[in-house]
Specification:
It is a single chain. The chain is mainly β. It has one domain: glutathione-dependent formaldehyde- activating enzyme (gfa), CATH 3.90.1590.10. The protein is built from 1 helix and 16 strands. It has a 7-stranded mixed beta sheet. The radius of gyration is 18 Å and the shape is globular. About 30% of the residues are buried.
Length: about 190
């Protein structure tokens, strides 16, 4: 096994993060990791440890024509109950997360992708054949994509950090989990 990257972390450290806990063992001065870790100097997703797990996630649309992979970390993961997310997903809410645009790789289906501007500067990207929502692009944040997590094929242990736009939720929606709830988007978070 080859080391992925030298690291100044002390020997045998358990890093806790909201995504997962990772045991790191030092051998010959290098750490061997099941997944890579990314050092973050200014963690925007509340990580206090200064490291975030980088996962390679794969996803596809319902018909399989659009396939993609995303290199994490996923940030600002939320269940959105707004009217637009409900209508775009056909469900009582959509679970979304932010990723760096540069970490999204389309593997197939470029010709199938369609966009719909649901509100000024916000384009919802979906498969034109089956209608599966893939992501949202925000014009004034070109370095960030909002990934629609319902199309992921890879398992994801990370849990949503918030439920947003509860002021627009369907009347029959019952909230029975411990995820923090907000009537809109918390001021410090990015656009959902």
């Amino acid at each position: 096994m080859r080391p992925l990257r030298p690291s100044p972390i002390p020997t045998d450290v358990l890093i806790h993060h909201h995504i997962t806990s990772i045991r790191i063992r030092m051998l010959c001065g290098y750490f061997f990791l099941p997944n890579r870790l990314q050092r973050v100097d200014d963690p925007s997703d509340g990580c206090q440890c200064g490291f975030m797990a980088i996962e390679l996630l794969k996803g596809s649309c319902l018909c399989g024509g659009v396939r993609y992979e995303v290199e994490g970390p996923l940030t600002a993961m939320a269940c959105c109950h707004c009217r637009e997310c409900r209508k775009a997903s056909g469900a009582e809410f959509a679970t979304n997360a932010s990723i760096a645009s540069s970490n999204f790789r389309l593997l197939s289906g470029q010709a199938l992708l369609r966009e719909f501007e649901s509100s000024p500067g916000q384009a919802r990207v979906f498969c034109g054949k089956c209608g599966s929502p893939i992501m949202k692009r925000i014009a004034d944040k070109p370095d960030i994509l909002r990934l629609r997590l319902g199309c992921l094929d890879s398992p994801l242990e990370q849990k949503p950090r918030a439920r947003v736009f509860l002021s627009e939720k369907l009347l029959f929606s019952e909230i029975s989990d411990e995820i923090p709830c907000f009537d809109t988007i918390p001021a410090a978070k990015s656009s959902v």
